[in-house]
Write a structure and sequence with these properties.
- Among the domains are: about 50 residues, Beta Barrel (OB fold (Dihydrolipoamide Acetyltransferase, E2P)); about 80 residues, Nucleic acid-binding proteins (OB fold (Dihydrolipoamide Acetyltransferase, E2P)), CATH 2.40.50.
- Helix content is about 0%, strand content about 40%.
- The protein is built from no helices and 16 strands.
Length: about 200
C-alpha cells in the first residue's frame, strides 16, 4: 500500500518571500535556502509537503514571459560559427523584467533575408539588437530577418563608444573608424527602460 504525502493548503507567494524555516522544511522546486530560511524563487503557489517535509513553489505565468512574436532588445554576449548568443534585456512596450531565462540564440539562417556566410559580418560582441521571438520554449530563439530588426546600438571596436550611422556605414567620431555591417532602420532609437536587477 502506497502512502500519499499530506500537503497544507496552497497559498500565493512572491519571489524572495520567506516560506518556512529550514528546521521544518527543505527547499524543493521553486524554493531556495539562505541563512537557515527557505524562500520562494518565483511568484506562485506554495505547497508544504508535511510528510516529506519539502516546500515547493509552482510558478504562475508572468506577464514578463517571452512568447512567439514578442519584440525584444538584447545584447550579443557570444558569437559562434553558426549563431550568436543574446541576453534579452527588455520586451518592447513593457517596462518589466523578463521572466525566466534571458539567454537566447540567433541562428545564422535567421539573421537576415539575405545569405549570411559569417556571423561577425552581421553582429559583434556588445551590439544591442532588436529581435523577434521565434520560440519562447523550450529555449529562447530569435530572428532579425526584417529591416526594422537588427543592430540598434553598436560600440566602436577601439574605444567602445557608441557609433553613429552615416548613410550605409557606422562611424566612430572619436577614432574615425567605420564599420559596414547591416543595421536596423531603428538604429540609435533605443533607450533601456527595464528596472535594474
Amino acid at each position: 500500500m502506497m502512502i500519499m504525502s499530506e500537503t497544507e493548503e496552497k497559498r500565493f507567494v512572491m519571489p524572495g518571500e520567506e516560506i518556512a524555516p529550514l528546521e521544518e522544511y527543505l527547499p524543493g522546486d521553486g524554493a531556495y535556502e539562505e541563512d537557515g530560511v527557505v524562500y520562494s524563487e518565483y511568484a506562485g503557489f506554495l505547497t508544504l509537503d508535511t510528510m516529506e517535509k519539502i516546500a515547493r513553489v509552482e510558478p504562475v505565468k508572468q506577464t514578463g514571459a517571452l512568447h512567439k512574436g514578442d519584440i525584444i532588445y538584447g545584447t550579443i554576449t557570444s558569437i559562434r560559427s553558426m549563431m550568436a548568443v543574446v541576453e534579452a534585456l527588455e520586451i518592447e512596450g513593457r517596462a518589466r523584467e523578463i521572466a525566466g531565462s534571458t539567454n537566447g540564440t540567433l541562428h545564422i539562417s535567421k539573421m537576415s533575408t539575405r545569405y549570411v556566410s559569417d556571423v561577425e559580418r552581421v553582429f559583434r560582441l556588445g551590439d544591442t539588437i532588436r529581435a523577434v521571438v521565434v520560440s519562447g520554449t523550450p529555449s529562447l530563439q530569435l530572428s532579425t530577418a526584417r529591416a526594422d530588426l537588427g543592430v540598434v546600438l553598436a560600440l566602436c571596436r577601439k574605444c567602445r563608444k557608441p557609433m553613429i550611422k552615416k548613410g550605409k556605414v557606422l562611424y566612430c567620431e572619436d577614432c574615425e573608424l567605420t564599420d559596414s555591417r547591416p543595421v536596423s532602420t531603428r538604429y540609435a532609437q533605443y533607450v533601456l527602460t527595464v528596472p535594474e536587477k
